[in-house]
Design a protein that fits this description.
Layout: H1 2-20, E1 39-43, H2 48-59, E2 64-68, H3 77-84, E3 91-94, E4 99-101, H4 104-116, H5 130-140, E5 158-162, H6 167-178, E6 183-187, H7 215-223, E7 230-233, E8 238-241, H8 243-254
Parallel strand pairs: 1-2, 5-6
Antiparallel strand pairs: 1-3, 2-6, 3-4, 5-7, 7-8
């Protein structure tokens, strides 16, 4: 019972984080083709500047290889420094163009220009109040996803289907970051306003039908539903829905 209550409290905190960030990173603005080589993001889940980059990746429906770099981390921080010259995050590496970039605003502008061929939409441009609200959003989630905790490394990276504004997905990303587990982040943002709402009770009544040909359509055909978070672990063959189950699995398998 205590574990259930603790999990619900974390979910409420994560809802607060999404609310303070105005629920950015939920709806796809412009779906773009996946690049030939995967993007790599050296990232701290609880960092407000990293969060802004992940919001843009959801907006563009772009997948990315996450290399978690929490404070006190020993797995990817030195590699990030060797790649970019310093331990500063977010750090984006685009193997398709050779770009190696710091600073969230510069990265966001690059992603929209390079992959969408447009300027950053107004809703995702930097505003003077964003650093304050971003820090408050991290506090709402109890600063999870910022500091490393002891764990075991998988032989192969994991796969997580998520979108940035999802409160339940955030809990899983926080744990993955703290354990320094690399993973492919498959962004599965909402592709139409009718998809707004929880998986079991969307705004549009009736059976859920994703937009044909999109990433959600492919996921629906594979799993019979569209719900995040969804974790696949190629090391064990596990495939899990539900944040509480995924967190318990990660703690047992890698914690």
């Amino acid at each position: 019972m205590a574990n259930v209550l603790t999990h619900h409290a974390k979910v409420l905190g994560s809802v607060g984080t999404s609310s303070l960030t105005a629920w950015r990173g939920c709806l796809v603005v412009k779906a773009v083709p996946q690049p030939e080589q995967p993007l790599i993001l050296y990232d701290m889940e609880g960092c407000p500047y990293c969060r802004r980059v992940r919001e843009a990746l959801t907006v563009l429906n772009l997948d990315v290889e996450i290399r978690p770099c929490p404070k006190g981390g020993r797995v990817f921080r030195k590699h990030a420094e060797a790649t970019g010259g310093k331990q500063q995050f977010p750090l984006l590496v685009d193997q398709n163009t050779g770009a190696v970039m710091y600073e969230s605003e510069a990265i966001i502008e690059y992603l929209f220009r390079q992959y969408a061929g447009c300027t950053v939409p107004g809703y995702y441009r930097e505003r003077v109040w964003q650093p304050i609200l971003g820090s408050m959003a991290s506090v709402a989630s109890a600063m999870r996803g910022l500091r490393a905790s002891a764990g075991n490394q998988p032989e192969q990276p994991l796969h997580l289907w998520s979108f940035e504004g999802s409160p339940f997905s955030r809990l899983v990303r926080e744990k993955l970051c703290e354990l320094e587990i690399p993973y492919t982040l498959h962004n599965l943002g909402k592709e139409h306003w009718t998809e707004i709402g929880p998986a079991a009770q969307r705004i549009k009544p009736g059976p859920y039908t994703p937009i044909p040909g999109g990433k959600r359509d492919a996921f629906f055909k594979a799993h019979g539903r569209v719900q995040v978070p969804y974790l696949e672990d190629p090391n064990t063959g596990a495939g899990l829905f539900e944040s509480a189950r995924i967190l318990a699995y990660l703690q047992t398998q890698y914690g």
